[in-house]
Amino acid sequence: MTEDLQGRVAVVTGGASGIGFASAQRLAQAGAAVVIADVNAAAGAEALERLGGDATRLGFEPCDVTVEAEVARLVERAVARFGRIDVMFNNAGLGGAIGPITETSAEDWQRTFHVLLDGVFYGTKHAARQMIAAGQGGAIVNTASVAGMAGGIGPHAYSAAKAAVISLTRTSAVELAAYHIRVNAICPGAVYTPLMHGGDFEDADRAIATVQPWPERGLPEHLADVVHFLSTSASIFVTGQTITADGGMLAAGPRFIESQKRGRRTSGVAGFTQGSTGRPNEIRRLNQADGDKPRT
Ligand SMILES: NC(=O)c1ccc[n+]([C@@H]2O[C@H](COP(=O)([O-])OP(=O)(O)OC[C@H]3O[C@@H](n4cnc5c(N)ncnc54)[C@H](O)[C@@H]3O)[C@@H](O)[C@H]2O)c1
User: Fold this and answer.
1) What pTM did the predictor assign?
2) Which of 20, 73, 156, 202 is the most buried (most CB within 10 A)?
3) Which CATH number fits domain 9-252: 3.30.70.260, 3.90.950.10, 2.40.37.10, 3.40.50.720?
4) Which is the catalytic residue, given 122, 158, 179, 192?
């Protein structure tokens, strides 16, 4: 494993669990000093222990990302402790408001946005101020979601807030490029963390099997590798992007072809269809050895 973040300092919000924890671990393995920030102080202390508790390179700061003053203090304390900030991973999140839009209260809607969008705004603002003042550039990574890219994946407020994170990633990347600060987002699909399906992984397996082409489960470590890439000079010319890691879920879309396969028209055949040209279709029947294996 490379140590390409040696001497660098990273702050990870929502770092006590799931994708944030795996990313904190990955960035630390790459040589960075890492400050984990989380509203759950008990989980934060536990996370620090799981990381090895090396106080010279690791720290935990209790922080509620919905409160601007707490995020500002988080960034200040990271700089005070480790001398600089190079990577800000704005990742803290929760499911927020659920249920039909007709049953969603304005308060729950706003509480969802406070965590998922305002938290990213505050983190970007205060990290960028420090990075600009230091004049050494930096990398900001935000956590969006496939739910921000298509309907039918997540709840209303969650999906709208994640779509806004993708937009904020683009607008801030444009502004901060002049300072060599890159801003990108990760866009996870279904990742097996306590957040997903309320931790009911068997239920999640059933749901995901129908929508995710990749056979294995998405793990926090898969996203941590993307966060690592976006944090290092390996991605020096990448900014304003949203990198999706979803096992092909969005690529598959509504799986129209699959549903047709279950019907008669395109099942067990291959060749060339001529549309409305008046020419005959060139279709041959397949047997299973030709690659028309049924999905399991
Ligand atoms: N797990 C998935 O399938 C999935 C998919 C797409 C996007 N995401 C996003 O990934 C991010 C991480 O989620 P996860 O799956 O690792 O969940 P997780 O529950 O394992 O971790 C989220 C962490 O964020 C912290 N947090 C919540 N609200 C906070 C606040 N106000 N201030 C500070 N910390 C707060 C929690 O305490 C927790 O430690 C979230 O933004 C989530 O929306 C997750």
Assistant:
1) 0.94
2) 20
3) 3.40.50.720
4) 158
